[in-house]
Q: What sequence folds into this?
């Protein structure tokens, strides 16, 4: 395992307070170019097969099995270690999600605020008592340039990870009070937890918005978009990646971890 990112006390405090964290230059330009080409390849295939959503949007779950370039982000050393430092070593990936949002016409101001603001985790936030515990987080990788406010970047509501109930509405805009748009450069990553209210912005920038999301949760939380990974993919993986793909020696290990199933445990204990 190459040297991995260490969560600073300042970063931890910011994440605990705001529910998100930005990692500048998480991906070098060469990796961004490789992922961008892979996304274009997948998008062209899905378009040929007629599997795009309305407006030619690509909303692909479990994308990690769709192109070999996507595997490297599973344990990317600049970002993934932050997930296991925030949660702990007993985690796995529960979703890999590719969104390509094509550009459209400029929407009227009253429509721009309709971004489907939500919390992650399916129905968990409806079923758990408040305040909800943190059970998962996602790492988003901006592959396209999303610095333009019109680029359809992800919108997050800082501090909503500690919010009880729904976010307050700004009467002037009709949107959530205090929401911000993650207008970041290609290669930037940002983390956000499932309790943080967020949504997808409107894109009228003239170019598609391309973002990859990798979700991590405790191993006793079921994956969102797969049951098990293809053997051919697992065979290419290192031990850390196999843990993150949910490979176990016994199902009980999800609740009572066996050391051979959680190499992250030993890795973290060896770390300074």
A:
């Amino acid at each position: 395992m190459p040297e991995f990112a260490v969560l600073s006390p300042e970063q931890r405090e910011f994440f605990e307070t705001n529910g998100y964290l930005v990692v500048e230059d998480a991906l070098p330009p060469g990796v961004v170019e490789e992922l961008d080409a892979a996304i274009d390849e997948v998008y062209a295939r899905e378009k040929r097969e007629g599997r795009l959503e309305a407006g030619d949007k690509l909303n692909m779950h479990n994308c990690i099995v769709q192109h070999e370039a996507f595997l490297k982000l599973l344990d990317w050393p600049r970002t993934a270690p932050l997930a296991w430092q925030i949660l702990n070593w007993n985690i796995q990936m529960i979703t890999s999600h590719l969104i390509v949002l094509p550009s459209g016409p400029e929407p009227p101001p009253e429509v721009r605020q309709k971004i489907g603001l939500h919390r992650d985790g399916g129905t968990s936030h409806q079923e758990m008592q408040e305040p909800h515990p943190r059970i998962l987080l996602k790492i988003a990788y901006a592959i396209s340039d999303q610095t333009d406010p019109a680029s359809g970047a992800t919108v997050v509501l800082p501090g909503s990870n500690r919010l009880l109930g729904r976010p307050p509405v700004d009467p002037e805009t009709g949107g959530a009070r205090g929401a911000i748009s993650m207008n970041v450069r290609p290669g930037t990553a940002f983390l956000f937890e499932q309790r943080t209210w967020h949504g997808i912005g409107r894109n009228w920038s003239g170019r598609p918005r391309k973002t990859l999301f990798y979700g991590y949760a405790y191993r006793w939380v079921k994956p969102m978009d797969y049951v098990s990974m293809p053997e051919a993919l697992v065979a290419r993986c290192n031990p850390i990646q196999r843990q993150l793909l949910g490979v176990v020696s016994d199902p009980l290990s999800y609740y009572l971890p066996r050391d051979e199933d959680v190499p992250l445990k030993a890795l973290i204990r060896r770390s300074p």
Notes: Residues 29-48 form the longest helix (20 residues). The domain at 9-232 is CATH 2.60.120.620 (Jelly Rolls). The mean pLDDT is 95. The longest strand covers residues 91-101.
